[in-house]
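Example record

One chain of 324 residues, shown exactly as stored in the release files.
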Amino acid sequence: MHLSIIVPVYNEEETIHMLHQAVTDAMQSVQEEWELILVDDGSKDGSFTKLEEIVEKDPQHVRVIGLRRNFGQTAAIAAGIDHAKGEIIVLMDADLQNDPQDIPLLLEKIYTGYDVVSGWRAKRKDTFITRTLPSLFANKLISVVTGVHLHDYGCTLKAYRREVLTGFRLYGEMHRFIPVYANSVGAKILEIPVHHHPRKYGKAKYGLERTIKVILDLFTVKFLNSYANKPIYLFGGTGILIMGISSLILLYLFFRRIFFSVSVIASPLFMISSMFFILGFQSILMGLIAELLVRTYHEAQHKPTYTIRSTVGFEYRSQSKTQE
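Predicted structure tokens for this chain:
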């Protein structure tokens, strides 16, 4: 199985049959083997029944996963990836706002050597105030913090090589940060404009509150990508900064004591300086503990601290050993 298309489904009974037909039509021009994995994320309407009907109609291509309850879009995507057989993974939404006709274009770019091809809803058909504007703010913030500059992190329509999806688990709203994780292992990323259609059926599952969740998840992503292997840099750096501030305050207090005869202990700054010094020292100790945890994690699971794109010449070495 070369290609897996993963679609999380939540209360989309009106669109499921149309989605299947649209994907089938789009894949007519693709010569590779493909499968469509539909993950029902605890739908409360008749979505799962519709999914079963599609499996009976197209057992060659369609696979259905039913989750016990609504775990969220990220968990549904993770379940689809875990059960996918394809070397290339395509993600998309079930509400027909993403256009399956863009899938061959994503694949075309993947075949030219890219590891991640991300869709960009350049002409987005959503409510500006509640959907588009918060998304613009979130995308800009994510790009600045992570250093991976994409116009549209929120667009689910993306294509990935499977190897860049290994080595991490998805939680919370983390599915939108997959390109960031992929970039951390050296993936080549391309963003291309894709079609976006107005929502005709059902209602949107997310509003302004999602922006807050994304910002909170961004802290986790930044930490995992920048400091997961060397947490002492974060905790130790913060500790040294706090202790430095404490030292400056103490110097100021001693300067006042020597030249102006102002008591050091009587000043509230002395207490603040002492607390800062203790906090800084504790932060360094936390960094050392985190370092021990990271080393235990890698060594216990034999997990490498690097990823390899390809190797050259090893097959010759293996042949030489066989001949000897």
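Notes: The domain at 3-227 is CATH 3.90.550.10 (Spore Coat Polysaccharide Biosynthesis Protein SpsA; Chain A).
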